[in-house]
Amino acid sequence: MAILERILMLGDEAETGYLEVKSDVDLNKPLGRAKVAEFLLGAANRDPKSASRFFHGHAVMVIGAH
């Protein structure tokens, strides 16, 4: 199953340690940018060994999937 299909089917329940779902984030507002920054910091501070099991260690944030 493709990532987007899974997100559309499960919504926020699709989130994992390597996948963040934000259905509505306004990047023009400080709160929206803060949510993205929080994800980036969290993703960057994951345990490398655990992170490497998915997406070659990368994390994914999907914004705007409804």
Textual characterization of the structure:
With 66 residues, the chain is of the alpha+beta class. 41% of the residues lie in helices and 12% in strands. The chain has one domain (3-63). It has a two-stranded parallel ribbon. The radius of gyration is 12 Å and the shape is flat. It starts with a helix and ends with a strand.
Count of all domains: 1
Shape: flat
Number of strands: 2
Largest sheet: 2 strands, parallel
**Whole-angstrom Rg:** 12 Å
**Counting H and I runs of at least 4 residues, what is the number of helices?**
3
- The helix-strand sequence is HEHHE
Strand percent estimate: 5-15%
Helix content: 40-55%
Notable features of this structure?
66 residues, alpha+beta, two-stranded parallel sheet, 3 helices
Outline of the structure:
It is built from three helices and two strands; from the N terminus they run αβααβ. The protein is an alpha+beta fold. Strands 1-2 form a two-stranded parallel sheet.
Describe the protein's topology.
Layout: H1 3-10, E1 19-22, H2 30-44, H3 48-51, E2 60-63
